[in-house]
Amino acid sequence: MLFPVVLFDLDGTVIDSGAIILASMRHAAKEVLGAEPPDELLMAAVGGPGLEAQMHALAPDRVQELVDVYRAHNEPLHTDLVCCAGIDGVLDRLKDEGRRLGIVTAKRRVTVDLAFNVVPLRHLFDTVVGGDETERHKPDPQPLLLAAKRLNVDPKDCAYVGDSPFDIRAAKAADMHAVAVTWGGIHDRGKLEAEEPDAIVDTAEELYGVL
What we know:
Blueprint: E1 5-8, H1 18-33, H2 39-43, H3 51-58, H4 63-77, H5 87-96, E2 100-104, H6 109-118, E3 127-129, H7 142-150, E4 158-162, H8 165-173, E5 177-181, H9 189-194, E6 199-201, H10 204-209
Parallel strand pairs: 1-2, 1-4, 2-3, 4-5, 5-6
Helix pairs in contact: 1-4, 3-4
């Protein structure tokens, strides 16, 4: 095997959550700001330093209010989540080979638990690093390095799989193999290609071939 440890982003990589993120971003902007920013602006920072940073880009003086309204709208929507097409089969296959798997996400651990209560994949992951567990966040490598530390593995033996430019930058900064996936629908392929990942794939089956 190329990489004995494979770490994954969660939103848009393992769970198909792009639609509920966008719906909640629209709701928060409308409710708090009375505004309807373009979707590209609403989604530009998704997958990066966290929800507060996303809201800071919309209104620096209304961050906490935006966050509170977003979460109140978003968390109930988790009951409709499904996994990304084919990813469950790939995860099973990787585990059967003896790989160790992890999640590194900007989501708070409580929200990660909401997702895994609906999409029952938690048992496949040896560690989960949530956005509230590190001082710095993607694209900083700290969350990825914490996952490697918990698994007692050299970062060079890890691949990190994600759907955002922030994921690719974090993987490179952590000296991990950077794999970009396009199926999340949150960031377009051009933005991912611009980060020059080590690999970029369009389907879960292709993903297996680069790990």
